[in-house]
Write a structure and sequence with these properties.
Elements (H helix, E strand, L loop, with lengths): L2 H10 L2 H13 L12 H12 L5 H13 L3 H15 L4 H13 L1 H8 L9 H11 L9
């Protein structure tokens, strides 16, 4: 999706509605065909924004809201192993943002603790993420 398409989308649905729908989807049992779930769109949108690129701010805001709205540690674990994990890169701005969110929110820290750090981040980034999470993280070389 192009940034202009995201702009159009977020005129129709708010970032808060997206975060709530994502949490709602993750709270339910999933049928074999997730595409039939009424909240699947929010999960798919986060996949597109974190895996395929897109504007920087909407996923940051949605991740923050998911951490706030999550009703249990299971949902936080899915956030960490899903969209937060996909959002991680060696980008200094992203790492600083993750560190700030983890320092400000216990729920965000819990989600970060569920991340499996990919092989494509530097050892320095890995160490910073572990510091922010306050626990040893999984990943290559652990």
């Amino acid at each position: 999706m192009e940034d202009s398409e995201f702009d159009t989308l977020f005129k129709l649905v708010s970032l808060e509605e997206t975060a709530r729908a994502w949490c709602s989807y993750e709270m339910r049992e999933h049928p074999d065909d997730e595409g039939n779930d009424p909240d699947w769109w929010a999960v798919h949108l986060m996949i597109v924004m974190t895996d395929d690129g897109g504007p920087e701010e909407p996923p940051r805001t949605i991740l923050t809201l998911i951490a706030e709205f999550a009703e249990n540690d299971d949902v936080l674990g899915v956030m960490g192993a899903g969209p937060l994990e996909a959002f991680i890169s060696d980008d200094e701005g992203r790492i600083r943002w993750i560190e700030a969110q983890a320092a400000a929110s216990e729920n965000f820290r819990k989600a970060l603790a569920a991340v499996w750090v990919r092989f494509d981040v530097t050892p320095e980034t890995f160490a910073r993420l572990e510091g922010a999470a306050g626990v040893k993280l999984g990943g290559p070389g652990t």
